[in-house]
Write a structure and sequence with these properties.
mainly alpha, 0% strand, 82% helix
Length: 118
C-alpha cells in the first residue's frame, strides 16, 4: 500500500530533520508550522470527511478515519521524541550548572577571620 511508504518516509524525514538541526530557531519554527498544518488538517477533516475519504482512497487506506489515525501516530511519535530530547537537554544543563556552582564554591577558600565562622 502507498500509505506505508508515505508514512515511513515522513517519519524518517521528520526524525532526520529534527535530530540534525536540534535547537535551532529554524527547527522551532518548523515544529510550530507543522503543528498548525496538522491542526488545520484536523479541522478540515471534521468539516469535510468525504474529502479525507477520497485522499485515503488515493493512498490505499480503507477509511478516512484510519488515515487520521496514522497521521496522529506519526505526530505523537514526533512529539514524544521532541519531549525526550528536551528533557535530556535540560538534564544536561542542570548538570553543567551544578558543576559550575560546585567549582565556584570549591575555589573560594574559607576566610577564618570572617565573623560567624569558628
Amino acid at each position: 500500500m502507498l500509505i506505508q511508504y508515505v508514512l515511513l518516509v515522513a517519519s524518517v524525514l521528520l526524525l532526520t530533520l529534527f535530530l540534525r538541526k536540534r535547537g535551532s530557531a529554524q527547527t522551532a519554527a518548523g515544529t510550530k508550522l507543522a503543528f498548525v498544518v496538522f491542526v488545520l488538517f484536523g479541522a478540515y477533516a471534521v468539516l469535510r470527511p468525504g474529502d479525507v475519504q477520497v485522499v485515503a482512497g488515493w493512498l490505499g487506506v480503507g477509511r478516512g478515519t484510519d488515515l487520521l489515525l496514522y497521521a496522529v501516530v506519526v505526530v505523537f511519535t514526533f512529539a514524544t521524541v521532541n519531549a525526550y530530547l528536551r528533557f535530556k537537554e535540560l538534564e544536561l544543563r542542570y548538570a553543567r550548572l551544578a558543576r559550575a556552582i560546585a567549582l565556584r564554591n570549591a575555589e573560594q577558600p574559607a576566610d577564618p577571620s570572617s565573623p560567624g565562622k569558628s
